[in-house]
């Protein structure tokens, strides 16, 4: 029976789009299907190289691969690129004299072809990225992961005037170089520094009117926290901060902020003031996820979170109940307590419990938490649903916990209690 080859009869631009989802090695193999496919791979708009496919190849085959990449990227009159993606480990072991992988040349070739997205995963890369990368006017998205690589420095000339998304992961950044990069991305909307380290910094300055999403996850050598993080982002909608508290935090003009995800550690004598400034900067959020590993005295400097309706908390239960006084309109609460603190639940009742809180979820429940569960049930006047997760317990612990909670269930007719 003859089967019609419908894919081969599709227009060239559609088949090129299909090939763009394949690693380049797989895309090239389609050239043996028929004459219609023979040179189609050379016109694809997405070039994706994953060097793990080189493992086990002979020296001759690896050399052939290098030459093929050179021809594909550097051949004149090629079409513009939508995306250039390179993932590779142990670059220095390749360039040991037997091979000379021209990674910088490949990046330059992609830039010259008007690339819109560049995604580089360069472990153990001890060379400098080409300067032309930082003046690419066509670039919309730049993602760089440089684990175990040299310190990431930006050239003196930077102009990424159309860049909207910048994500740097596992990199060591120089303070002046970092600020130069940020300040020359004038239409940036999404900025991420994930598991990055900062060296020789007095101030990290992020003042970008167009910014909508910001994720800062920094780690620092001991004693390297004596600098200030300055953020001025009037259109910021999402903010994530996962780091130790540095010497100073200055967050201003963040009235558009809707969601924040904050995980803070303390390794500074000035942590109380800096953490307070952080809270003051995010006080307009509607949704907050807070992971806090110490207790910050809740003095009058803590702002009122008038807009906060969703709160996810990881920390000490005593600090939670105090903080609820600063969230008068809270409707949904999710909690996971770190350890037992021996809190006495005879403190005042936050207004959100009396007037607005409708749903509570407690994760990793332990039997010592029965007092806070009782406190929440007794004082939450409009509560509709309480979810308690006991799935992390042993069978014996779970049975004991269920018996405890069933007693509360019998005494509470105001809400649905769900034990999972």
TrEMBL record:
Signal peptide positions (record): none
SMART domains on file: FBD, FBOX
Cross-referenced Gene3D superfamilies: 1.20.1280.50, Ribonuclease Inhibitor (3.80.10.10)
Top-rank taxon: Eukaryota
InterPro entries from the UniProt entry: F-box-like_dom_sf, F-box_AtFBL13-like, F-box_dom, FBD, FBL13/AtMIF1-like, LRR_dom_sf, LRR_FXL15/At3g58940/PEG3-like
Domain F-box, first and last residues per copy: 4-52
PANTHER family per record: F-BOX/RNI SUPERFAMILY PROTEIN-RELATED, FBD DOMAIN-CONTAINING PROTEIN
Entry protein name: F-box domain-containing protein
